[in-house]
Amino acid sequence: MNDLTSNRIKELLVKLSTKQVLCESEMTEIEIWKAQSEGNKRLLKRITSSSFIEKALFDDNIKARNKSLNKLMQKIDRQSTSWYTSKSIQWIASIAASLIIGIFIFIQSYTKNDIPPIVAGIPQATLIKTDGKQENLNKTEYLNVPDSTFVNLSVPKGSEFTVKLSDGTKIHLFSESSIIIPEDFSKDKRLVHIKGEGHFEVSHNENSPFTVKTHLSTVRVLGTIFNIKDYGDKENAFVTLIKGKVEVSNKENKTMMQPNMRTEIPMAGKIATQRLNAITMDAIEKGNIIFNNESLENIMHDVGRRYNVDIQFENEKLEKLKFTLNVSRHKKLNEFLSILEKVNKVKFSYKNNVVHIHKK
Q1: 102 in Cβ contact with 56 (< 8 Å)
Q2: Buried b / exposed e across 80-106, counting CB within 10 Å, b at 16+?
């Protein structure tokens, strides 16, 4: 969010909202500021609307506010100098001062609470090779990893990245995820380590199972498409199978998964598998974000990770609210939070990269 609180911008916005004429350089300043964000565009449109002046007075007594405003407009419309007495000039100055203060308060409030249209999934990653050299990646195409190349690929918050291995396997890494590809990875020895969330499209090879190791589990496949989520930060892990077969195991037990199934691997205890309905599977294949009776605390943890923002709850009760959602992964932050507000009794505000959650 841009700094809308600068006095210079406020002064220009006040002049615009009160229909004063701006010089060419002042208009240029406004245009530059306007182009910096969608939030700025919305604010500019709002304060130059015909209904804004009335709202900007911020009088607790609505009738008194409307009466004062109407009286002011009637005097101005007369276009006569006869009523410019010292008292009327003082009165007009007082109303104008109230209007300006109201506009300043509105701008401050708008700046504090407006949710920015932050985009998730920006292509970005850091690559560390066998020789220790580090490379920052920000291209949209996937990264090709040849044999005999140790790779540690990490994706920061708010980003995503795709890697293609030498055997043809594709792995799409989501926000705050990392993958280690051992130096001896090959078509005959296929093993990777992942922390975080990834979408795997494993190249089929009957003679060489593909193995994925995480903090809580081991997943063995021949050729298949599946999602795995294991951040290792006091969260349970999940494996969702879209196509093929996979074997999931932990210290307690193991299970063979069929398509349209999801396995939950707890921090401690036996793994559990459930079959997913067609609607859920369709959403997963589209890459949607799905929450089934999930706490707002866990959802906002995911939001913070995907959009690279910090989260602050007004109270602990809000953390326990439950939500069921099926939302496109491509929604911007303001769009996603707007959906949450419609589903349950919460509202959001934003300031200094922190999303604040309040009771509606």
Answers
A1: yes
A2: eeeeeeeeeeeebeebeebbbebbbeb
Specify the DSSP class assigned to residue 253: -
DSSP 93-106: HHHHHHHHHHHHHH
Q: Is 213 helix (H, G, I), strand (E, B) or coil?
A: strand
- Identify whether the C-beta of residue 164 lies closer than 8 Å to the C-beta of residue 144: yes
Q: Which long-range contacts (CB under 8 A, 24 or more apart) does 298-301 make?
A: 298/235, 299/323, 299/325, 299/340, 300/355, 300/357
Dihedral of alpha carbons 327, 334, 47, 105, sign: positive
Question: What is the C-alpha to C-alpha distance for residues 241 and 208, in angstroms, rounded to an integer?
Answer: 19
* Amino acid 312: pLDDT: 95
pLDDT score recorded for residue 72: 46
Beta-bridge partner residues of 326: 290
Pure H helices in the chain: 7-17, 24-34, 38-47, 52-56, 62-78, 86-113, 278-285, 296-307, 316-319, 333-343
Entry field: residues in the chain: 360
pTM: 0.69
Q: Which of 5-9, 94-98, 219-223 has the lowest mean pLDDT?
A: 94-98
Largest CA distance in the chain: 99
198 touches 192 (CB < 8 A): no
Alpha-carbon distance of 330 to 317, in angstroms, equals 29
| Average pLDDT of the residues of the chain | 81
Tokens of 234: 């006091």
